[in-house]
Amino acid sequence: MAIRSVCLFCGSANGGSPSYVAAARRFGRAVADAGLTLVYGGGNVGLMGAAADAALAAGGEVVGVIPAFLQAREVAHDGLTTLHVTETMHERKAKMAALADAFVALPGGFGTLDELFEIVTWSQLGVHAKPIGLLDVDGFYQPLLAMVRHMREQGFIRGAAMERFCLAQDVDCLLAMLCRQRHAPKGEPLSLDKT
């Protein structure tokens, strides 16, 4: 089954480097140019808004999922193809997961890591078998990956779990890796150790 939609996890702030916003815009354009639907948290701020705006400007389909309490604070993007409103954050994450064929994390904060690690945990538990990618903008994820490697070395993560990630610094390369993983024979290693 081909990838038709990609769920993006990323910051609701711009972060401390212009590289982050530029990467979010590149990602949104690349998803649209590939004919894929962008699924994300529905916000119009930060990296979320930058990616959504870029995908829309490139003629792409963008689906947002936002809880009602955030929509009420007027951070919802009002120009999306579709906007789903949920009651809770848990429902939001479940809806995003159901709509997506793959997942990508760009730089972000606690919310981004929460979404990323929940989807990784679900993969580890067999809830889904969808590919997961990290866009490592300017080495943003290197400290996190060092911690993950440390957890593996200490026996808390099995080696096979490391193969649940694709890691790249280039948007087009990451999307290609996700598509290859989707079509790869079971067991083909695409590990977080690759850069």
Could you explain how this protein is built, in words?
With 195 residues, this protein is an alpha/beta fold. The protein contains seven helices and seven strands. The chain has helices at 18-33, 46-57, 68-71, 89-99, 110-124, 142-153, 171-183, and strands spanning 5-9, 37-40, 62-67, 82-86, 102-105, 132-135, 165-168. A seven-stranded parallel beta sheet has the order 4-3-2-1-5-6-7, sandwiched between helices. Helix 3 (68-71) links the parallel strand 3 (62-67) and strand 4. Helix 1 (18-33) runs parallel beside helix 2 (46-57). The longest helix is centred in the N-terminal third of the chain and has 16 residues, at 18-33.
**Residue-averaged pLDDT:** 89
- Indicate the radius of gyration in whole angstroms: 16 Å
**What is the count of DSSP helices, taking H or I runs of 4+ residues?**
7
The tally of strands reads: 7
Please give the share of residues in helix.
40-55%
Give the oligomeric state: single chain
**Spatial order of strands in the largest sheet:** 4-3-2-1-5-6-7
Keywords, separated by commas or semicolons:
seven-stranded parallel β-sheet, disordered C terminus, single chain, 7 strands, 195 residues, 7 helices, alpha/beta, globular
